[in-house]
Amino acid sequence: MGTTAFIALGSNLGDREARLRYAVHAIDALAGVAFARGSRIYETDPVGPGEQGAYLNAVIEVSAALAARELLAVLLEIERAAGRKRGEDEERWSARVLDLDLLLYGDERIDEPGLRVPHPRMHERGFVLEPLCDVAAERVHPDLAVRFDALAAQVRDPEAVRAIGTTPLRPR
């Protein structure tokens, strides 16, 4: 159908699991996007300023007929519909109702204002790499030429990133 893309999902406010499930359903309902598979859900320690609750994180694989910029635009709209307010009111790495990040878009390398693919810090983040390994462990990072399972092994911290089930995330 299109280009294989990987999207990270996160939430640490409200009904976190419901927010992730809402996002998967909304992404799957998009014209030009087909859900392929999802990771398990992980509970992860927050990274960032101030007191925050733990996150729930996951990664999904989709096939997208949309261009990367178009896919990002609809992901941002799904965040807004869930109640996220981006911009000057949101501190970087603050608590989030819903956070959707485009991690990979095929093997493309994109560096434009507001869109960098592969995601620039994904290789440093266990909360991204662990769920990504559920769906793409053997894939190779387009810039680093290292498999994602090897990158995950370098930052793995089972105390900070914990699978909370065995069932992969999928649309309703």
Structure, explained:
With 172 residues, the chain is an alpha+beta fold. The protein has one domain: 7,8-Dihydro-6-hydroxymethylpterin-pyrophosphokinase HPPK (Alpha-Beta Plaits). It has four helices and eight strands; from the N terminus they run βαβββαβββααβ. Strands 1, 2, 3, 4, 5 and 8 form a six-stranded antiparallel β-sheet that branches. Strands 6-7 form a two-stranded antiparallel sheet. It is globular, with a radius of gyration of 15 Å. The mean pLDDT is 90.
Q: How would you summarize what this structure contains?
A:
With 172 residues, the protein is of the alpha+beta class. The chain contains four helices and eight strands.
Order of helices and strands: EHEEEHEEEHHE
- CATH C-level class: Alpha Beta
Number of helices: 4
The stretches of 5 or more residues where confidence is low (pLDDT under 50) are none
Terminal Cα separation, in Å? 21 Å
Mean pLDDT: 90
In which range does the helix fraction lie? 25-40%
| Corresponding CATH superfamily | 7,8-Dihydro-6-hydroxymethylpterin-pyrophosphokinase HPPK
Count of discrete structural domains = 1
Count the strands?
A: 8
| Rg, Cα atoms, Å | 15 Å
The percent range for strand residues is 25-35%
Second rung of CATH, namely the architecture: 2-Layer Sandwich
- Estimated structural class: alpha+beta
Largest sheet: 6 strands, antiparallel
- CATH topology term: Alpha-Beta Plaits
| Shape, principal axes of CA atoms | globular
Features:
single chain, 172 residues, alpha+beta, Alpha-Beta Plaits, six-stranded antiparallel beta sheet, two-stranded antiparallel ribbon
